[in-house]
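Hey, can you fold this one?
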Amino acid sequence: MKVFEASSKFALNTTTKCTVYLWVTCRLATTDHDDDTISFFIDCNNTGDLFIHAEAEGVTISDIVEPVYVPSIVHSFFPLNGLKNCEGIFKPLLGVQVTELVDGVFVGCTMNHSVVDGTSFWCFFNSWSEILRGSFPLSKSPVFQPWFLDSTNYPIRIPQSLVKKLYEEDAIPPPLRERIFHFSKQIITGLKAKANLDVGTTNISSLQAFLSHFWQSVIRKKKK
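Sure. Predicted structure:
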């Protein structure tokens, strides 16, 4: 697979407009405390994020989506693989790789999970998509208001010994094979309609309906 030094114009021309997501160009920083603990925070120093433009020669879309299990080459389509969250001190919090296939494009996006959860990830990605479609300003701005349980003392302090252990340990992924399940729009719409009907509401989203269906299927399988 060829990796080009120049970042993709696709990435640069759009994410530079997404200035409301300032954290994507930042790094993690730490504060040492007297009780031999450490806390992390986001240092908005405009260090920059990571963009990679690559080309997978001879690889087609069908090579990616048709096999029963995810081909090993797919892992190379995502930047910052194997990076630990605590390494965000000196590594980007956001990495995007645009890989050109024979008959399409694969966009791999990696974010540091210590600063981004699933909801904020999709908020960012959807905002990026809006910019690509020429929609600006954005329809939905990110929420930066932190939320903690009332009993939580923050900043959250982590023992220095634990942080050191995280740095020293090598994360070895389990020997599992991955599989992607494809659901059509019609099936997802049906799951959403059924979930809302069963509960007597209209507030259940497509994602919530799918996740509940998936979880129930897992539980039923375990009971057999």
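Strands lie at 2-4, 27-32, 37-43, 50-55, 94-100, 105-111, 158-159. Let me know if you want another pass with a different chain boundary.
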